[in-house]
Write a structure and sequence with these properties.
Layout (H helix, E strand, L loop, with lengths): L1 E5 L11 H10 L3 E3 L11 H9 L9 E6 L1 H10 L6 E7 L11 H8 L5 H6 L1 E9 L7 H11 L2 E5 L15 H11 L3
Parallel strand pairs: 1-2, 1-3, 3-4, 4-5, 5-6
Length: 186
């Protein structure tokens, strides 16, 4: 089993809980990769697909994708592509539609259309969704809708903000616990 962690808008591999989770997974003997995606310059679905294609040889039925914010939406885009199959997806502060906020234009190529939900669900063994009840960017109802469509386990964190460093999430033990519980060790 291996893990790929995908950051969001204006994000990078060294922020939030990503370095902590990478270290925790590696200490358990797993490979954990946190690619750097272009943002905000050259941020588009096409440019992000070019980056993920560099890891294509590592993505298979034993791969777990973890996405934060736009990274979660990108996982949906990725799973919609032909011949994709992964073990599980953990979508943190995720969404699947355009939101009226300052990021709308940057999000357009990722979520500015209807998804092929059957294809996405057929490409992934299990979905797990994490949301906060006070995320300033992602309405909880939108994340609940996405979780419902995916038949995902939904974990709502009280007062978790955007589940990022600014909201106190330099570590994310609940996410790791969910992984260990649902995916097993080794």
């Amino acid at each position: 089993m291996n893990f790929i962690i995908i950051h969001g808008i204006y994000g990078h591999p060294g922020e939030n809980w990503f370095p902590w989770l990478k270290k925790e997974l590696e200490s358990r003997g797993y490979e954990a990769i946190v690619p750097k995606f272009p943002t905000p310059l050259d941020q588009s679905l096409e440019s992000w697909m070019r980056i993920i294609s560099k890891y294509e040889a590592k993505i298979n039925e034993e791969t777990v994708l973890i996405g934060h914010s736009l990274g979660a939406a990108f996982i949906l885009d990725y799973l919609e592509q032909p011949d994709k199959k992964i073990k599980a997806a953990f979508l943190v502060a995720g969404y699947h539609k355009l939101i009226e906020n300052e990021f709308k234009e940057l999000n357009a190529t990722f979520v500015g259309r209807e998804f092929d939900w059957e294809k996405i669900k057929g490409s992934c063994g299990n979905f797990f969704v994490f949301a906060s009840d006070n995320d300033q960017y992602i309405p909880l109802e939108l994340t609940k809708e996405m979780a419902g469509i995916l038949n995902a386990e939904l974990n709502i964190i009280p007062n978790g903000g955007h589940l990022n460093s600014k909201a106190g999430f330099d570590t994310f033990p609940l996410l790791l616990e969910c992984m260990v519980t649902n995916l097993g060790e080794g």
